[in-house]
Design goal:
Helices cover about 5% and strands about 55% of the residues. It is globular, with a radius of gyration of 24 Å.
Length: about 300
């Protein structure tokens, strides 16, 4: 359940309470409160802060303990035969930020967050399996800061987002058979970066409309996800660039469209790991095809492991 309280013209409070119960691998439940405040300090400045308690059940795709035990004393025995049941993740999440309208066309913002988790859920693709296997870290921490900027006038729009983050876990307490004994020993005594952790993530885009044609370009980039022994290394820095041209050939609501699109991927090193494949897409001319939106979408990067680890 949830509700909203408007204290005055400047302050709004959102609050709620949620109850979860699961009977899957284990029986577990939790009562989770949450509260958020939005304060309009000035006509152009808005502050927000919030707290939430989360309960995240594990996914259904997992390996049962009895399945692992069937391979004991065979050539296919796991290096770490232990496979404790996967637990639901329980976390506390804190968030605070500010949005500032600089001019009628320009808006900027900054947001900081912190998540503290018990039985932190993560997933990995081990061996040749095509599904991810869930497991728990005993504790986990996820924190960072995000910067956003947007510009929009009659013909031109642009956005930029930058996120700095860190996500760590310590001591694997379920699904241990997926890891070697030396990895388990290291992670038991060292906070390690999660495999989806990336220090720097960003996106930016522009769009310009002239007559009935919109030209746009956007990019995403990152410092590289984690890799190596216990995620102590990371893959190369990457950049992806997309450009497009969208022409509307009729003023009718159901108008014909023509769209050209190109995409490039770039890596700082190890280029053989990155695709560099231009793509061209032509939307068919059709009287019953609705024209796509000409406004560039705004991509705000949120760390993937806020409410449930990827």
């Amino acid at each position: 359940m949830q509700d909203e309280l408007k204290v005055n013209d400047k302050l709004i409070i959102n609050y709620g309470l949620r109850y979860d119960k699961m009977n899957e691998v284990v029986d577990a439940s939790q009562l989770s409160p949450r509260v958020g405040l939005v304060y309009k300090a000035t006509p152009s400045t808005t502050l927000h802060a919030g707290y939430a308690r989360y309960f995240t059940p594990p996914p259904l795709e997992l390996i049962a303990p009895t399945t692992v035990a069937q391979f004991n004393n065979t050539t296919n025995q796991a290096a770490s035969p232990q496979n404790s049941p996967v637990q639901p993740e329980r976390s506390h999440y804190f968030d605070i930020g500010v949005t500032q309208r600089v001019t009628s066309a320009v808006t900027v913002g900054v947001d900081a967050y912190y998540k503290k988790a018990t039985d932190l859920l993560d997933e990995g693709q081990f061996g040749t399996a095509l599904i991810n296997t869930p497991y728990n870290y005993q504790t986990g921490h996820d924190y960072g800061v995000e910067f956003t900027a947007n510009y929009k006038d009659e013909h031109f729009s642009a956005y930029a987002n930058l996120a700095l983050s860190r996500a760590t876990g310590e001591n694997i307490i379920s699904g241990q058979f997926n890891f070697s004994p030396d990895q388990l020993a290291y992670i038991a005594s060292h906070p390690v970066n999660l495999d989806h952790d990336q220090l720097v993530t960003g996106s930016a885009g522009i769009a310009y409309t002239f007559a009935r044609t919109t030209y746009s370009a956007d990019t995403t980039f990152g410092s590289g996800l984690r890799s190596g022994f216990a995620n102590t290394d990371h893959v190369p820095f990457y950049v992806n660039v997309n450009t497009s041209r969208l022409s509307i050939t009729s003023r009718r609501p159901l108008s014909a469209t023509l769209m050209d699109a190109w995409s490039w991927s770039i890596c700082s090193i190890a280029p053989t790991n990155c695709a560099t494949v231009p793509e061209l897409a032509l939307a068919p001319r059709s009287s019953d095809r609705r024209a796509p939106s000409t406004q560039a979408s705004r991509n705000t990067f949120k760390p993937p492991a806020r409410h449930a680890a990827a």
